[in-house]
Design a protein that fits this description.
Layout: E1 5-10, E2 13-18, H1 29-44, E3 50-55, H2 72-90, E4 96-100, E5 103-105, H3 107-114, E6 117-121, E7 125-127, H4 130-133, H5 139-149, H6 151-160, E8 164-165, H7 166-172, E9 177-179, H8 184-197, H9 200-211, H10 216-228, H11 231-240
Parallel strand pairs: 2-3, 3-4, 4-6, 5-7, 6-9
Antiparallel strand pairs: 1-2, 7-8
């Protein structure tokens, strides 16, 4: 793992932290390339129920670190690596949450948008900035932004590269929740604990259905998984006994 990315796993939650303090946590080419490699074992680890992506200190991620690029080839390589990392994060089979403080700009916003949910601290700032660099934002990344915010807000962000505050981000759907700075960590911890107590079967199937195109084969797959799973019976039994259900379904290897 290169300097700049770290992972800590505790209580069913894997927290991936972006740390490049000299560049406000901007992502280097090595960091982009390393993220999919880092995510792969976490996706298969049965002890990991939820993934949280965050930034070290008071900044989420200020974008891509382009300070070392001197030609177009370097910029294109960085953009390709960013898309690969983004798609690996979006394809992560378990719930993912971006915990955002401070600046979430460019590639940082790209990563946050690839998560299932985005929880932000008051004062966070968001921007999509290819217009500052004269580059074309990737088609798949643009479509993901449109799905979150709608076309008008996506066009505003892409046309202007203007930063927006947490209130506008919340209003337009770029952010799901906003918390006081000293309450964000508690909310994320409580929410990941809540997800850890729920059915993995429901969560994995819901993510597959909401993120993927209609696919009869996937629908049959999840119907078979539900038929074989004890989770529904356990939930009913727990309800009648006035106790917390203990769900046991895990993804097949």
């Amino acid at each position: 793992m290169p300097p700049g990315l770290s992972v800590d796993t505790a209580d069913g939650t894997a927290t991936v932290t972006i740390a490049n303090p000299a560049r406000r946590n901007a992502m280097t080419l090595d960091m982009w390339a390393a993220l999919p490699v880092l995510l792969a074992p976490l996706a298969k680890d049965p002890a990991v129920r939820v993934l949280v992506l965050t930034g070290a200190g008071d900044t989420f991620c200020a974008g891509a670190d382009i300070s070392g690029f001197t030609d177009d080839a370097g910029l294109w390589a960085a953009q390709a690596a960013a898309v690969t990392a983004e798609e690996a994060l979006a394809a992560f089979p378990k719930p993912t949450i971006a915990a955002v403080r401070g600046y979430c700009v460019g590639g940082g916003c790209q990563l946050a948008a690839a998560c299932d949910l985005r929880f932000a601290a008051e004062g966070a700032r968001f921007g999509v900035t290819p217009a500052r660099l004269g580059i074309v934002y990737p088609a798949s990344t643009t479509r993901r932004l449109v799905r979150l915010t709608g076309p008008a807000t996506a066009k505003h962000l892409l046309y202007s590269a203007e930063l927006i505050d947490h209130e506008r981000a919340l209003r337009t759907g770029l952010v799901d929740e906003v918390w006081p700075p000293d309450g964000l960590a508690t909310r994320v911890r409580d929410y990941t604990a809540l997800l850890g107590a729920r059915s993995r079967l429901t969560q994995h199937a819901a993510k597959d259905f909401t993120d993927g195109a209609p696919d009869p084969e996937r629908e049959r797959y999840w119907s078979a998984q539900a038929a074989d799973s004890p989770d529904a019976l356990e939930a009913a039994t727990a309800f009648l006994a006035a106790r917390t259900p203990h769900f046991t379904w895990t993804p097949p290897n």
